[in-house]
Design brief:
Largest sheet: 9 strands, antiparallel
Radius of gyration: 20 Å
Strand content: 15-25%
Number of helices: 7
Bound molecules: 2-oxoglutaric acid
CATH topology: Jelly Rolls
């Protein structure tokens, strides 16, 4: 050993290791547009969050969005028709339950999102996602290929969505499908239909779709993805509802455009970890 060699304490070594891991994950996110963190939420916490969601679905606590409202393939044709009362999203998740809000401010989550957004100051955007996303047996619908940013209005297309699985997500119950790296592509408007879904009739789009992978998740796993990443999801073909708690975050410098839906709700500022209690 040379006299100039640095001797690290166990703590210093741990933090260096964590930093190295964080760099690897950040690099993966930057190039692929998504990241899966396994078991970020503890089993007990997931159970509590799922129970709240199930109770609120049972009694249909407003505000909600129905499958019939989105009118995606497979959705009931109207609210009055068969399955018309199937809820697709429990909206305003951050405000509807203390546990939901606590998850949105979870220190590990905030640290990860800050790293991915290259920002020490981030906001939870209440105007987008901010919901429990559900897929019910029988009356669920498919979501076609799209980028979340299609209807979002911010200075830059660089938000991060955090998808917490409150149960298993598999091909059979309609887990997310992603096209890695698609957030870096320049996709002209004609490649999308009028509702901004990727057109499936174009060979160049079909080639892209062939690159898709499935984001299969276990309860407590978290999928983080860039607002420009192309993603889609199928129907739930099991007999158990699929539930996920979903929030989106922006860096402080990436402001919503005033007068748009993206600026329509107050945002939750997330300062230093542990310093953000309401
Ligand atoms: O679960 C799904 O169908 C996907 C939902 C989705 O991609 C969205 O709401 O942006």
């Amino acid at each position: 050993m040379h006299s100039q060699d640095k001797i690290l304490t166990a703590n210093q070594f741990y933090y260096l290791l964590m930093e190295k891991l964080a760099n690897t994950e950040k690099q993966f996110f930057d190039t692929q547009g998504y990241l899966i963190v396994r078991q970020m939420a503890a089993e007990a916490q997931v159970k509590v969050l799922r129970n709240v969601a199930e109770q609120q679905l049972e009694t249909v606590v407003a505000p909600v969005e129905y499958e019939a409202d989105v009118a995606y393939p497979g959705a009931p044709s109207s609210r009055a028709g068969q399955g018309g009362n199937t809820v697709r999203r429990l909206l305003h998740a951050y405000q509807r339950d203390k546990g939901f809000a606590q998850w949105g401010r979870h220190p590990d989550l905030i640290h990860t999102v800050k790293t991915l957004l290259n920002s020490n100051q981030i906001y939870l955007v209440q105007a987008h996602h901010n919901c429990v996303m559900t897929k019910h047996p029988m009356f669920s619908s498919s979501t076609m290929w799209h980028q979340d940013f299609r209807y979002w209005r911010f200075q830059q297309n660089a938000l991060v969505t955090v998808w917490l699985a409150l149960g298993q997500e598999t091909a059979r119950n309609g887990c997310m499908r992603l096209i890695p790296g698609s957030h870096l592509l320049t996709l002209d408007k004609p490649r999308f239909d009028q509702a901004s879904f990727l057109r499936t009739d174009l060979p160049e789009n079909r080639a892209l779709m062939h690159q898709a992978l499935r984001a299969e998740l276990e309860p407590g796993d978290v999928l983080l993805f860039h607002s420009g990443l192309l993603h889609a999801a199928g129907r739930n073909q099991t007999d158990t509802p699929k539930l996920a708690l979903v929030y989106s975050y922006r860096a402080a410098g990436n402001l919503p455009l005033s007068g748009t839906r993206s600026a329509a709700m107050p945002e939750i500022e997330l300062l230093d970890v542990g310093n953000d209690e309401p």
